TrEMBL record:
GO BP terms, alphabetized: DNA integration; DNA recombination
Upper lineage: Bacteria, Pseudomonadati, Pseudomonadota, Betaproteobacteria, Burkholderiales
Record keywords, A-Z: DNA recombination
Protein name (record): Integrase
Annotated organism of origin: Trinickia violacea
GO molecular function, one term: DNA binding
Coiled coil start-end: none
Ribosomal protein listed as a keyword: no
Top-level taxon: Bacteria
Cross-referenced Gene3D superfamilies: Intergrase catalytic core
Residues spanning the membrane: none
Amino acid sequence: MSAELKGQIRLLIDEKGGVRKRDGHVASYRTIQVHHQVMARIVDILYERGYKLERAENLAGRHVQVLAAAIVEMGLAPKTMKSIWTELGYWADWIGKPGLVKPLHTYLPQVGPERLKVKVATRESKSWSEAGLNVLETIEKADRLDIRLGWMIRLGLAFGLRRAELLCLRIHKADQGRYLRVFPGDGPKSGRGRDIPIEHPWQREVLEYVKERIPKSHFLGWQQTPSGKHGRLHANADRFEKLMQKLGITKAECGVTAHGMRAEYAENIAMLGGMLPATLGGRADQMAADDLRLVQEGVMERMGHGRVGVAAAYYGSFRLRPVPKEGTRQRSPRRVVDAE
C-alpha cells in the first residue's frame, strides 16, 4: 500500500527534514510542507507505474530513471519537474544514498534543454489588482470572514510581507516611525531582518488603523486556535491558507494567490520610484540603466531579497518586453485602510 510508504517518508521528514542541507539552519514551515507534498506525489507516480516500494530505503537507480521519464511524459511544467527532482534528491540523501539522483538532463538526452529550463521571470502581473480583483471589496470580505485576516491583508499589500512575517508581526514593536522593522525572530526568510521604509501616507494609515485594534502584546496572527489551544505558527499558517481559499484567493479561482500581495507591493513601490514594471508595459529604456538598477535594488531590499535578479519573478524582466494586456493602465498605490 502506498499509504505505508508515505508514512515511512513522513517519519523520515520528521527526522531529517527540519534542517536545511545547504547551511544547516532550521528549515521553514513552508520547506517542510513542500517535503511532505512533493514526496507523496513521487510515491504516487512510482506506484502508478508499477513500482511499489515496500520501504523508503529501497529507492534505487531504476526508480530514478522511471520517474525522470514519467514527469516528462506527464507534461509537467519545468518548475514542477525541478521541485520533484530536488525532493527526490533529498530522499536519496536521507536514506544514505548521496549521488543516487543525478541531474535530470542526464536521464533525458532526447529532451531539448528548453523543455527542462525553469523560467523565473514572469510575463504577466501576479498582483491582485491586475488580476481583476477589487482590493477594497476583498478586504471587506476578509473582515467579515475573520478580522485578523483583514488586518493581515492590509499589511501584506502595504508592506509586501511574507505569510510568516504577517503571522509573527508585533506591530507596535515593529513600527519604528519612519520604517517598519521585521525582526530576525519574527518570521523573515533565513532569519534576515530588514527595515521597510514608510514612504507613502497610506502605509502610515494602515499601520495606525491596525494598531488601534490590536493589543500591544499581541502578534498579528491568531493567539488561539478555534479549539482554544495556543496559536502556534504551523497551525496559524494552515488557518491562513484555508481562509484564503474561502476568500477565493487561489490560482484556480481567480488566477492569483496570497503571494500576489507581495507582487502588488513590488509594482507599487517600483512606480513610487519612477519605474513602470515590465508586467505593466514598462521598457528597459524608460530611464538610464544605472537608475533602473537602483530602483530595482531598492524594491528587492524592501522585500527581503539580496539579488536584483529576483525582481523578474515579481514584476517581469525588461528583456521580455511584454505586450501590455488590453485595458492595463498605470496605477497609483491603492488605499487599503478604509474597508471595515
